[in-house]
Amino acid sequence: MAVATQEVFQRTDALCEVWDAGSATPQYTLLMKGGRPGVTLTDTKGVAKPDQVLYGAVKVTGITQPGYSNEAAKSVSAAGFGVGVATDGTWEFPSVVSTGTTPAPTSTAQGTPVFVTGAGALTLESSGNTRVGAVNYTATYVKSAGTLPIKIGV
Description:
- By secondary structure, the chain is mainly β.
- It folds into two domains: about 10-85, no CATH class; about 90-150, no CATH class.
- Helices cover about 0% and strands about 35% of the residues.
- The chain has strands spanning about 5-10, 15-20, 30-35, 35-40, 50-55, 60, 80-85, 90-95, 95-100, 100-105, 115, 120-125, 130-135, 150.
- The chain has a six-stranded antiparallel β-sheet, with no helix packed on it.
């Protein structure tokens, strides 16, 4: 699935839910549940973090941290891949295509519907795909081909 780079307009905390991600899933990953889109708010258990240099030449490697996952939410995920999910808000996603492999152009209009393919890629093509939301620019958004702020769930 697609992974957002940032939250553009904040989600509504009261609309957040705990879903079963099914496997190790990084923060800001777009998930679909029953045809509804959601974005993970934290990593699940088992997400490997990049190596980090903490003190001078001391390097910490191989870290797998669950962040604030809900691995104890066994009623949601017996395997421990429960994760908090935002079901609204606007999220910036890279690698959005208009057709085929062509990046979405900077001329993509406000309110343009955005869809997810069966393979988890984001596209502006509706045929055979599931709608996840619509383009939602801020007043001063700096446009870049292939990257769009998407308001999910609309």
